[in-house]
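Lay summary

Proteins are chains of building blocks that fold into shapes. Our project writes down both the chain and a compact code for its shape. Here are two examples, one after the other.
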Amino acid sequence: MYTIKEIYYTIQGEGFHTGRSAVFVRFTGCNLWTGHEKDRENAICNFCDTDFIGTDGPGGGRFQTPDDLVENILSKWPSRSIEQRFVVFTGGEPLLQMNEELINVLHFNKFEIAIETNGTVNAPKNIDWVCVSPKAGSDLIITKGNELKLVYPQHGIDPSQYENLNFDHFSLQPMDNESLNENIQKTIKYCHEHPLWRLSLQTHKFVGIP
């Protein structure tokens, strides 16, 4: 069974694929925070900005088989064109539920598959785009992929510690908290001084895309 908070069609707002149309699938559950506010202060990741508790979001539910879930994902894609089908799995932590059976059914239906993961759980084979977002205080298991997207600044993390990992792209994204404007300036400064890193902004928040 796959337990899903929400499934919706949108435009990717951050990272390498900013501006690309996609179906987003948000799994419930995470191994770095319960999702409950009472536990946030002591969580490994205490700055998460998403709700991944329950199955009550748009398109959410419990899906018994990969075919059931993919049928729901297909229903969100608006175009008959199969060449551009793109699905992004996020959470919570998507790799707690993602498996090869689901990947195979998605590929059969001509979807390009991306995940956004904290990198602490091994990934199944044949995911097309692996975006890892390391969190301070956690053990990074996935050390290669397509994009490493680091929320910045994080206490206890220096971006330079990831620069020798086997990723194609390195993105630095300002932490969205009460110091957002200051964090944006710090991130811009770091990217200026370290050209390996690209600035990633959460554009969906600026323009009102879900």
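And here is the second example, written the same way.
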Amino acid sequence: MRLAETFESPEGGKLPVTSPDPGRFYAGYEDGEYVVRLTKPAEGTLARIGLPGIHSDVELGIDARLVEGIDDAVIVLGCRVNPDYGEEYRLRIDPSRARFTLDQWIDGEATDTYWYYHGVIPEHWTNRIRLYCGRELNVYLNDEWGLSARPDPPPGADPMTFSAEGGIWIGVEVISDSATNVEARFDNLSVASRAVR
């Protein structure tokens, strides 16, 4: 296990105890969970918290739920964040509509977005999310398979030398211009090594 946390206490915790951008969102430990709460929710606003380290071939697991803004926000996990190519992958989960999407982002733009509907995403309860990030991407929601993909290297990258390693993060994104309150809570974080597939 590379990283594990239950968020019971900020003392010895692995995530920031305060927001890296307090003008836009609050972040911190509350009641045995990690909270991300937007102070000025607006459509397109993304609040994210980076996890320590650079990782290759890992599985990110976390419990996540939306407390407020259920109809106006999505839970987001990011992996393989590679500043050299301006590239990353984002898993977005929309509990109120029981759907998710896994997108490749290059230079701040999603290359292709397709929403998948999944019957085991509860609207008002916690979702157990597992995202395998390596040369293959795999999504599991509440212990059920959701999607597998084998992405291509970003444009300009040498496919013989391109590395699957990168940063990872958790967060919440506003998808409605009518949002007034948006809050996500996270628990039971794990980042484990996985063999290359």
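What can we say about the second shape? The chain has a mean pLDDT of 87.
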